[in-house]
Amino acid sequence: SLALYTVPDAAGLGALGASFIEVLVRDRADAVLGLATGSSPLPVYRALAEHELDLSRLRAFALDEYVGLPAGSNQSYAAVIDREVTRPLGLDPDCVAVPDGSAEDPAEAAEAFERRLESAGGVDLQLLGIGHNGHLAFNEPGSPLDSRTRVQRLSETTRRANARFFPSIGEVPQFCITQGLGTIRRAKHLLLLVRGGEKSGILKRALTGPVGVDCPASILQLHPRVTVISDEAAASGL
Ligand code: GLP
């Protein structure tokens, strides 16, 4: 089933998104939360920080990571998650897993990540954003709908969209490690966060168009429990 909430602005998205995490943690302090990067989930993390919950037993898994950034880069998703999530929310760093994009063998690092996720019992609540081309995590169009955590080449669209976080486009990595669409589909509850009018077309495509590899986010239609929180601009096409 799909529940769609439309909120006026980022503050509304943050407050509602944070309430889903709060309910999860009150039920089970050591629940497994799936973290997303990108700008869409940031208001959720900020709102949650104000709840002053004890999140020290929460376990968290990131969706994706760049491959081959220089050591200590603050553009890595590990650094972003540390800055935006682990520290402000008081998570235990040992309970936060991000695929190791600096591993000598990224393919092996991807497999190790998938194994760790499985041995944690899977994700209870997975936060998601949607890319302009319909990607989920870094599953670009063409990704198999049952794929697992693996190394992927980033599309030019995605590299251009993410260039704003780097000094220049040349510094945006060519590869990443991403949870697969099959990995994401195993989470018990998917929570998609969408902001801005430039996402309205792709959101409509994902939720109402045919399910297919040209729009990875269309797998939301195959999942038994999806919640979408969208601002009015992004929901305008629905
Ligand atoms: C990035 C991330 C995705 C994210 C997407 C949308 O490339 N890998 O996980 O959902 O872009 O980002 P934003 O929320 O900033 O639009």
TrEMBL record:
Residues 20-221 form the Glucosamine/galactosamine-6-phosphate isomerase domain. The keyword NAD does not apply. The keyword Aminoacyl-tRNA synthetase does not apply. PROSITE patterns: GLC_GALNAC_ISOMERASE. Keywords: Carbohydrate metabolism, Hydrolase. InterPro entries: Glc/Gal-6P_isomerase, Glucosamine6P_isomerase, Glucosamine6P_isomerase_CS, NagB/RpiA_transferase-like. This is Glucosamine-6-phosphate deaminase.
